[in-house]
Design goal:
Layout lengths: L1 E4 L8 H9 L10 H4 L5 H5 L2 H6 L6 H10 L3 E6 L6 H10 L7 E3 L1 H11 L4 E4 L2 H9 L3 E5 L11 E2 L2 H7 L1
Parallel strand pairs: 1-2, 1-4, 2-3, 4-5, 5-6
Length: 167
């Protein structure tokens, strides 16, 4: 099975890292991250290789990705991060010992286009708009559970152990 893994808030604990910089998210139920931290210059962080390299992984993500590979599934990393962060993201994956699999940092629109056009069997993501693309294509999608994806009608799982078990 070909499984797409998102980076931010599926593998990398990005919102928690932003909360370290800007304080608790004001509206974590919003689907727009700018609403989490009103007035914050998020692009200064989200487009910074050094900030992205310093983000810790989501608990259990490394082991979860390894479990997926050990079960003979294929992994493809697709991120809405800007293409300029590809090298930093690849270095981050290597630093934390994630499996070495293809990575695509393609921006928001690029991720939308890829999810609409490439072949895959399962998407694991935290953003509703991407989960809905898989659903519209009749493909399986699992949400890593956060307040911002509470409206997802499909499976929402709060740990990597639960994600791996659901695969």
């Amino acid at each position: 099975m070909k499984i797409i893994l998102d980076i931010d808030d599926v593998l990398a604990d990005t919102v928690a890292a932003l909360e370290q910089e800007w304080g608790p998210a004001v509206d974590p139920t919003s689907e727009t991250i700018n609403d989490f931290f009103p007035g914050a210059d998020l692009s200064r962080h989200l487009h910074s290789p050094s900030f992205n390299l310093a983000i810790p992984p989501v608990e259990g993500a490394v082991e979860g990705a390894r479990s997926i590979l050990n079960a003979n599934h294929e992994i493809l990393y697709i991120s809405a991060r800007i293409p300029g962060l590809t090298n930093a993201t690849q270095a981050w994956l290597q630093t934390w010992a994630f499996p070495d699999n293809p990575l695509h940092c393609v921006g928001r629109e690029g991720k939308t286009m890829m999810l609409q056009s490439i072949q895959y069997n399962l998407l694991i993501d935290d953003q509703l708009k991407y989960l809905k693309i898989a659903e519209q294509r009749g493909l399986r999608a699992l949400a890593y559970a956060y307040p911002w994806n509470a409206a997802w009608a499909g499976p929402r799982l709060a740990t990597w152990n639960a994600l791996v078990a659901a695969i």
